[in-house]
Write a structure and sequence with these properties.
The protein is α+β, with helices and mostly antiparallel strands. It contains eleven helices and 18 strands. It has helices at 2-28, 35-67, 82-91, 113-126, 128-132, 191-196, 201-223, 263-270, 275-278, 287-293, 343-346, and strands at residues 99-100, 110-111, 134-138, 144-150, 173-179, 181-185, 188-190, 238-239, 251-256, 282-285, 305-306, 316-317, 320-324, 336-341, 347-352, 357-361, 368-381, 387-392. Strands 1, 2, 3, 6, 7, 15, 16 and 17 form an eight-stranded mixed β-sheet that branches. The chain has an eight-stranded mixed β-sheet with strand order 8-9-18-14-10-13-12-11. A hairpin with a 2-residue loop joins strand 12 and strand 13 (320-324). The longest helix is centred in the N-terminal third of the chain and has 33 residues, at 35-67. It is flat, with a radius of gyration of 26 Å. The N and C termini lie far apart (66 Å).
Amino acid sequence: MFKKLLELRQQQAQIKAEMRSIMETADKEQRSTTEAEGAKFDELRSQADVLAKEIARYEALTDEQRNHAGKDVETAQADTTNADLRHWIKTGELRSLATNTNAGADGGYSVIPQLDKEVMKRLTDDSVMRQICNVVKLPLGAKEYKKLVSAGGASVGRGTEGEERTETNTPKMNEVSITLHNIYAYPKTTQEILDFGGVDILGWLTDEISETFTETEENDLTNGTGTKQAKGFLAYPRTTANDKTRPFGTLQKMAVQPAKLTADVLIDLLYSLHSKYRKNAVWVMNSQTAGTLQKLKNGNGDYIWRDGLQVGAPSTLLGLPVYYVETMPNAEATNPFLAVGDFKRGYTIADHETGTRTKPDSITEPGFYKIHTDKYLGGGVVDSNAIKVLEAQA
């Protein structure tokens, strides 16, 4: 019953996505809907109404079942066993193992809830960018994340009772759009291991998929071009202009010759951030850069780097936490090798509700079983005043 309820909800989401697409197309072309579009929209709305009633009936039944003491309630997914996963890899049969994301319309890809949960947990634990940035999840039917960001410009008037009040300036708004892109992993194993080995299938899949996805995500969210991949924060244009004169979507930078890097340079970079961003700011760099910065001293001869006081606690630089993003470039040539800022406000990572999708493949390479696994990922700068970058100068 629960599986049927999920299928109905997914059908409803697809229909609403089609309805939204019709209206967005007309709106983009700055016209009214055509007669054919109107008829299609009305037909889809009728289908959505029918589905809504059917969903309400199933929801009432599942609620009633929960209220009966001592009666088993059907849930979305029981714990996945090794036997279930082994059977699925070898045959492709789902049993009660997984739920299709859209009734099989996407070519047999399925979501295994326990695997999806384990992979996403590992990504959150292992990906530094996921720890320091804002993360959103888009619903079914959504392909991109959009947000309006104020660029300032609003003004406040002052007056007294009885005086005529004039109109004030309104804030300038900029739209940020983050598109989702597909990333995938292709772990494989042999038939012998599945037949005779006492392998923890869920653990193996989680390790293989998580490691591949973490490396890919960290690189894309740092250096990605935005073409067929997320746009990393280092891919945005940079200039030395300050916040009030720099175009929206352009980061502020400073440049220094690595041999002349001093504590004063880092202080200047930090205080180029507005105070509202400094209170939650963090430093981002790779390990090689960290090794260099640990040796810097202030004018009194004291090291400006402090190791974490507890196991697992981040080190601090000028009082702010340090995070190691190994996909950051080294301090050489003209590389952007150091960043500081409030990444929660400055950069957003977008996931999709479909989660980690999987599809077994025992055809393309005889003797091996492959698990094609993919997910959607998007990323982009949403506040270009919140992140500052230090570049190497040749």
